[in-house]
Amino acid sequence: MKRLLLLGGGHAHVHVLRELAREPMPATQVTLVSPFPRQLYSGMVPGLVAGHYAVDDCVIPLPPLASAAGVTFVQASATALDTGARCVSLSNGDRLRYEALSLDTGPVMPTGVVTGADEYAWPVRPIETFIARWQALLDQHTGELAGSLVVIGGGAAGVELAMAFKYRLGSAVAVAIVTGGGPVLGGQSGGLQRRATRALKRCGVTIFDDVCEQIGATCLQLKSGLELACDWPILCIGAAAAPWLAGSGLQCNPQGFVETGPTLQSVSHPQVFAAGDVATRRDVSHPKSGVYAVRAGPPLAANLRHFMAGGELQTYQPQQHSLALLACGEQRAIASWNRWSFEADWVWRWKNHIDRRFVEKYLLDGV
Question: What is the mean pLDDT of residues 162-168?
């Protein structure tokens, strides 16, 4: 009996589970390891924060999906990977061996780059921990909250969350975003940057094109010397690789992410596959985005099946451009494709339809 180990319950792996529920792999024992018993879909988190969704609207339960696929589910996280011994050590003390390993664990939040972040900030990853803190805050304050909230990070997730917080909390909470220097959505087209900036200002979010150097109990210290009052610092500064990858023996890029080729296999260890934010393609560059993680699901599922059967693997070429849909707090959204962008309420309805359809596809009724 061959052993296939799926490490992480990310966007690509839920698709693998769905395909296994439709057609099991012969003579293969498949195990899924995830630190949480569900995937809280990242694309719906801004809508959840804004109050448009309940938590149950945004989650894909993993144990039922695994059970339908004949896959053993283990709730734990990886602590070490030994590619020489083909063994993964887990937080529960177990050591699991494999003939093939697939990584879809996502990134971690690099809290160490900002002084005081580990002690005072709310990192947005792990998403489950972030949402639990947010729900606890709402439960503790049944009336109107008052104070100041700052989102640290000017990428797409930071922009969406800043507007979601402002919409949900109203005028009694001052909401700001610290971009990290430069405009919001740095690296995107100027038209999209301007549209996002207008949307933030319309929502009442104050923008600081500055760098947060230190987080304290009640304030932030910016590089410019400015001090911002802050009751709730939300850390949203991009993705970092999990520390256990560094000692795994896998070839990684300078940022620590697993380098893969066109078949989604590790360039150094062909029995290891990787998709989503934990991986980076050596042959083609694309941003770390949920869109690309979702699109990697079908080729990953196909190649895992072919690999376990000793068949020929398929190459996968990610699309050069992807559609981005940014929620704007209220039920409006910005759509962008390459250098084109548009904002409207119908874009929100379009995004809502896409997001709900994604989640529903991986519930048992949709398998």
Answer: 97
Alpha helices by DSSP H, the chain: 11-22, 45-50, 62-68, 117-120, 127-140, 156-169, 190-203, 290-295, 297-309, 345-361
Bond preceding residue 107 cis, omega within 30 of 0: no
| Contact present, 191 and 341 (Cβ < 8 Å) | yes
Give the contacts of 77 (CB within 8 A, at least 6 positions apart): 33, 34, 35, 90, 91
Q: What is the largest CA-CA distance in the chain?
A: 63
95: alpha, beta or left? (left if phi > 0; alpha if psi -120 to 50)? beta
What is the spatial distance between Cα 130 and Cα 269, in angstroms, rounded to a whole number?
Answer: 34
Full-model pTM: 0.93
- Lookup: tokens for 28: 């293969």
Buried b (16+ CB within 10 A) or exposed e, 119-144: ebbbbbbbbbebbeebeeeeeeeeee
Tell me the pLDDT tens digit for each residue of 312-343.
Answer: 999 988 877 778 899 999 999 999 988 889 89
Percent of the chain with pLDDT strictly greater than 90: 81
Burial of 268-307, coded b for 16+ CB within 10 Å and e otherwise, reads ebeebbbbbbbbbbeeeeeebbbbbbbbbbbbbbbbbbeb
pLDDT of the residue at 364: 72
Neighbour order of strands in the sheet with 212-215: 212-215, 219-222, 227-229
The tokens of 351 are what?
A: 């995004």
How far out from the chain centre does Cα 244 lie? 18
C-alpha 281, offset from chain centre: 17
Q: How many residues does the chain have?
A: 367
Q: What is the mean pLDDT of the chain?
A: 93
pLDDT tens-digit series, residues 26-59: 999 999 999 999 999 999 999 999 999 999 999 9
Residue given tokens 């048992």 in the structure block:
364
d(CA 215, CA 237): 13
197: left (phi over 0), alpha (psi -120 to 50) or beta: alpha
